[in-house]
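Progress against Task 2.4 (sequence-to-structure conversion) is shown through the following example record, which the project officer requested during the mid-term review.
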Amino acid sequence: MTTDVGIRIGDMEFSNRLALAPMAGISDPPFRRLCSQLGATMTPSEMITADTRLWKSKKSQRRLSAWRNKTPQIIQIAGFDPDMLASAALKAQNQGASIIDINMGCPAKKVCRRLAGSALLRDPNLVRRILQQVISRLTIPVTLKIRTGWCPESRNGVEIARIAEDCGVAALTVHGRTRACKFSGHAEYETIRQIKKSVSIPIIANGDIDSPEKAKSVLDYTSADAIMVGRGARGNPWIFSKINSYLSDTLQPELPFISVRDIILAHLDSLYSFYGEFTGVRVGRKHLTWYFQHQDSARDFRQRIVRVETAQEQLKLTQFFLDRSPYKEIIEYSSPQGKRVDRIKEQKKTTRQTKDRYEGNSTCRNAKQAAWGTYG
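Structure tokens generated for the chain above:
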């Protein structure tokens, strides 16, 4: 299996099959640019409301910015009203977007409370109306991001996928959890596999991909056209370079320490440039915490770095720590890797066993009950 085949979305060709997930508060323009430099060819924006009256806010302007990123601009929008979503998509297209991605996968309460995000999975007819309205107004590809369903007892991902294909969606990303499961437990890939068998549009698999080995396992099991990495890239942006090498059977030496150090320091510098010093330092704090979250030797550093107030102090303290840190700790322990691969083997038994296992997951069941209590 190689990544040189790439993936085609509408009339756009991507050189490999790796995407960065549109994570709120993480996938900002500097991080998207960094991940694209390290091998992610698809880097969607953070989710943006379809209410364009709010696009004048500094937060929305930042999310809409392409800022030094040479990859095609993919703008993700969220909402529940077909006309509003269509108008927002058209406005994003007119501002330079190459692809519009519609979010129907966000499990956050504040999103679902407005019947947006993954709440839309409960209303397939509304899903159809939204997709028809948006696609009819645009000349650029429209993609869709969903979960496998609202809850484990009603995984309707295949139904939604068929609606998406029928409406003209150019590609579909599927996170291997239901809305009720949020981010608890393990992602399941059997539903993604069934979706891939049911439609002909490109399918992008998402959920718990945190190592090159896991990436290959997910691609092999689901036959997906591409994979999307989310939390596995936090503090570990070079995961895309590693996955690319692993999938293409290219023997690539570990990133030299000088590269790791320079990547982290350059990331900080880009945050200051994009946000300005005050906000950039504060955004930098959380990224530095992720870079060193699994290193025992970084405990004192993490406690100190969240208290610095200036860019100069943050850079100086980070460089001082990096110059005294064992390289192996930084590259190997920036993110837990490969801990979920065995779940795919379990899912290969039967679809019934997969369903039984997740229906018996008390965390998902409780989450589902809470969700129905709030929104039902």
